[in-house]
Amino acid sequence: MQNESIVELHHINKAFGGIPVLQEVHFTIRRGVVQGLIGGNGAGKSTLMKILSGVYQPDRGEIWIRGQQERLRSPADAHAKGIYLVPQEPLLFPYLTIEENILLGMNVDKKVFREKIQTLMDTLQCGFTLGQIGADLTIAKQQLLGLLKGLVRESEVIILDEPTSALTSREVDALFHTIKNLVAEKNLAIVYITHRLHELFDITDELTVLKNGRIVSQGRTHDYTLEDIIQLMVPQVNGKERGTKSTALKEQEQDEQKDIRQDTEYILEIENLWGKGFRDASLQLKKGEVLGLTGVVGAGRTEFAEALFGITQKRSGMMKLNGTPVNIKNPREAIRLGLVYLPEDRHLHGGFLEADIKENMTAPILYRLFRVFLRRKREKRLAHNFIQKLRIQTTGDDQKFKYLSGGNQQKVVLGKWLAPLPRVIILDEPTRGIDANARKEIYASIRRLAQEGIGVILISSDFEEIVTLSDRVVIMYNERMIAELEPSAITLENITFASFGYANVA
Question: Cα separation of 128 and 490, whole Å?
């Protein structure tokens, strides 16, 4: 039956580490409808879809599928119930054939399914064969492969997570044509997640807007304007819209840093820099300045930071430190020149889990601590200095990194990158996953760094954090820097509009 509900989520709640991510969410998915699901960074979109696809379990709430209450314990359960998630980064085994990629994990007769797959490929006009290997496929064709995986499993609900993020406009048009045909011919339900808001008016029938873990609006797409949608996503703090910093706070911060920054040349200059995941980037950073770098997830912020630090190679463009052109090819060279990078994932890239605090903190400068043997007293003195300065709660400098709280781990990683005495520090999501008290202390540390004359690039998905800490803000969208906000223009509304590609809308 057209437009009957397939899935209903009721009173869905989910928290991580005591921090609510979803609160009392009601969400209905109906046949023949393309449902747009949108929201800013941290709104809860991905968590909701991972609950629907069996990756996470809700803390509280009910999942009803075709009128029956169900518990989805795994993605396999979701597949069996006709729900399939096509992730933003297609899961592809490059050296398996297309047929092997599609049927992987399915205990079926390949001969029987081969004809079914070929029929679906002809319907979708895929432009590849069952015998080709995955490595042959473009990004656009990988997206079609994701759709094929869902269709061959006879899924009735297909979730598309940022399906056009790496596609050209022609490929986007072809994908939309395919989606519309599938919905019309097979009476499927599509959940469509995107940060490209203009696409909503081309492909979706209905919209659901998430903010701060709650649904704040639902309705027919044609009942919204672009301005309506973005305004709904402007973050709220304590239930109230937050604009700029208070005038008094701004004046206080400006007075504190005026002597450091006045008549000061730029400490870091970037012009027309190109690299993997970002394009034509230009910015300037002064001594003692906190420059906020923000945008929606996937905009290219981390890729830009990794290129500056020498983790990935730059393709073209110019970079200067203290007025001198540099070509940083690896992190060791960046550290030597006074530029350091605190990465987003403190476990994977930030700290050594099995090492103790002092070993973590001195890792970037071990070469300075050696003569013939490691100078243990100097290593210990340095660690104690940062433990006190950053107020790290620990039993001693020999406590292992893995046994610290999240906030204290982040402080150790910060100490690690302050040990080389940098001129520029890039902080990538420095407060992600830490509690409120630790967040306040990290904020105080960032302000102290600026007061000491260090140039700080603060990368954050938390728009309020950007408003609170930044002297200027640069906003990235679709791998480009599209807006720069001076202090008087740093508001949640302006940041939100620009982060979704509408720098001139607010």
Answer: 48
Torsion angle of alpha carbons 454, 457, 463, 465, nearest 10°? -20
Tens of pLDDT, residue by residue over 467-497, are: 999 999 999 998 999 999 999 999 999 999 9
**Residues 309 and 340 placed together within one structural domain of the fold:** yes
The residues, ordered by sequence, that sit 6+ positions from 319 with a Cβ below 8 Å of its Cβ are 268, 269, 270, 271, 273, 308, 325, 326, 327, 328
The count of structural domains within the chain is: 2
Q: Of the candidates 474, 31, 78, 104, which has an alpha carbon nearest to the alpha carbon of residue 285?
A: 474
Residues 268 and 169 in one domain: no
101 closest CA partner among 76, 55, 126, 135:
135
Residue 465's CB is within 10 A of a number of other CB atoms, namely 20
Q: What mean pLDDT comes out for the span 380-406?
A: 78
- The mean pLDDT value for 253-274 works out to 69
Does residue 335 belong to any structural domain of this protein?
yes
pLDDT of residue 426: 94
The reply to whether 384 falls in a domain is: no
Q: What is the tens place of the pLDDT at every residue in 118-176?
A: 888 887 778 888 899 988 887 778 878 888 888 888 889 999 888 887 677 777 888 88
Evaluate whether residue 65 is within a structural domain.
yes
Q: Is 135 in contact with 142 (CB distance < 8 Å)?
A: no
C-alpha to C-alpha distance for 342 and 411, rounded to whole angstroms? 11
Q: Beta-strand (E) ranges in 276-417?
A: 278-286, 290-294, 314-321, 324-325, 339-342
SS3 at position 400:
strand
Average of per-residue pLDDT across 225-231: 90
- What's CA 411's distance to the chain center, in Å? 21
Residues 374 and 362: beta-carbon distance below 8 Å: no
Between β-strands 424-428 and 339-342, what pairing exists: parallel, antiparallel or unpaired?
Answer: parallel
Q: What is the mean pLDDT of the chain?
A: 84
- Per the listing, tokens 């081309």 go with 202
CA dist., res. 476 & res. 321, Å (int): 22
Within 10 A of 64 (CB to CB), how many other CB atoms are there? 15
- Over residues 283-321, the pLDDT tens digits come to 999 999 999 999 987 789 999 999 999 999 999 999 999
Residue where one domain finishes, among candidates 206, 233, 260:
233
Per-residue pLDDT reduced to its tens digit, 168-211: 777 788 888 888 888 888 899 999 998 888 899 999 999 999 99
- pTM here? 0.72
CA–CA distance from 277 to each of 182, 426, 479 (Å)? 31, 17, 6
Q: Is 71 in a helix, a strand, or coil?
A: coil
Specify whether 225 is located in the same domain as 247: no
Kindly state whether residues 429 and 490 are assigned to the same domain: yes
The DSSP result for 473-488, as a single string, is EEEEETTEEEEEE-GG
The DSSP secondary structure of 454-470, one letter per residue, reads -EEEEE-S-HHHHHHH-
